[in-house]
């Protein structure tokens, strides 16, 4: 999750209740349930996600994403014609060029998310 978080950095995690877009979550990746990853929630249930020319599109509408310019083009319909199912999320790392995330291991179920990382000194 560089540059947002560094390896071995200590973070505060709060209980996970319905993560929102751009929340950073702690999760067990589907392909390695013993590992813990920090990833940013990009796609929510019932959505389709695309990245085109450095811009995030959610259900065809542009959405501001700080890391979109670093994200290679990604077209949802190349994976499936269905939206993200209920109870699942599409997550990406902030270091998009080398991140192992939903583009490689698929969607993350709500049960695989252990908590939401509290960023900075906000009282979210």
UniProtKB/TrEMBL annotation:
- The principal location of this protein is membrane
Protease: present as a keyword of the record? yes
Its Enzyme Commission number(s) read: 3.4.21.89
Q: In its UniProt entry, what is this protein called?
A: Signal peptidase I
Tell whether Hydrolase is among the UniProt keywords.
yes
Organism lineage string: Bacteria, Bacillati, Bacillota, Bacilli, Lactobacillales
Q: Where in the cell is it found?
A: Cell membrane; Membrane
Catalytic activities:
Cleavage of hydrophobic, N-terminal signal or leader sequences from secreted and periplasmic proteins
| Keywords of this entry | Hydrolase, Protease
Q: How does it sit in the membrane?
A: Single-pass type II membrane protein
Q: What PANTHER family does the database record attribute to this sequence?
A: CHLOROPLAST PROCESSING PEPTIDASE (PTHR43390:SF1), SIGNAL PEPTIDASE I (PTHR43390)
- What SUPFAM superfamilies would the database entry show? LexA/Signal peptidase (SSF51306)
- Which residues belong to any copy of the Peptidase S26 domain? 1-117
Q: Which domain of life is it from?
A: Bacteria
Q: Which family does it belong to?
A: Belongs to the peptidase S26 family.
NCBIfam families associated with the record: sigpep_I_bact
């Amino acid at each position: 999750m560089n540059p947002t978080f560094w390896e071995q950095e200590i973070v505060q995690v709060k209980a996970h209740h319905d993560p929102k877009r751009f929340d950073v979550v702690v999760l067990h990746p589907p392909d390695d349930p013993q590992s813990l990853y920090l990833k940013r929630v990009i796609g929510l249930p019932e959505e389709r996600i695309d990245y085109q020319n450095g811009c995030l599109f959610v259900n065809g509408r542009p959405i501001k994403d700080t890391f979109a310019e670093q994200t290679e083009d990604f077209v949802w319909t190349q994976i499936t014609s269905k939206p993200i199912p209920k109870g699942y999320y599409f997550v990406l790392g902030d270091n998009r060029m080398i991140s192992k995330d939903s583009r490689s291991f698929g969607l993350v179920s709500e049960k695989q998310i252990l908590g939401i990382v509290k960023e900075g000194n906000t009282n979210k």
